Amino acid sequence: MLPVKTLGEDAAPPPLPRARRQRGLVPEIVDTLSTDMREGRLQTGDKLPTESELMARFEVSRTVVREAISRLQASGLVETRHGIGTFVLAPPEQGTFRIAPEDFATVADVVELLELRISLESEAASLAAQRRDDGHLQNMAAALAAFEMSIAESSDAVPSDFQFHMEVARATGNRHFADLMTYLGTMIIPRTRINTASSAPEGRLAYLQRVHGEHQNIYNAIRLRDAEAARKAMRLHLGNSRERLRRAQADAPA
User: Fold this and answer.
1) In what helix (H) or strand (E) does residue 81 lie, and over which residues does it extend?
2) Which domains can be identified in the chain, with CATH numbers?
3) What is the pTM of this model?
4) Torsion sign over Cα 38, 41, 45, 46
């Protein structure tokens, strides 16, 4: 097993000058950490600095750091292990199963992934309702609260959205569900590939509130140990996302 290391203070380059912030705070963090990995300052198995350390290094908010980490997860560069930290992943081996960011170039690609998720996560929700414990419920509730806070802060709520689905997977008691979710990362959230929130007919706020309500329905069914209701709530939630994308695809100019 590779030793866990953190990027020491002496190895970290100084914060970039504010004059370079014109290209965006999140891309700046993603580009810097990606370069550190590519040039060997961060190697496979290394633990990234904590959120607080990254906030201080780049002089940004926690929300910005979390969105940057989400993009690194979506690119398959890092994985977050609950309660431990975020670690650098090895480059994917050739010939193995892989769903990469480039596999989401079109709306049709995102719809295909949603179809895969419907089959997997609906069953995961059912199993979670049967096997969950109080700790699982607390973690799901925390993800719901973080989602609600992100809405208020005008964030896209991607990290908390993904975290809720991850906690459902963990509650199954079957590590393969959580391993697959970790592998896919936040790129499973359509908003990371397509700006569904801003383009929603009802507007960004109403769209995210509706997603939040769908998550709450899943949570309530799991809390009540109603396996069939949990399965249906998850299927409805992901099915709604698929249908919204299909409508957007149909309405797009040829």
Assistant:
1) strand 78-81
2) 9-88 (1.10.10.10), 101-251 (1.20.120.530)
3) 0.61
4) negative
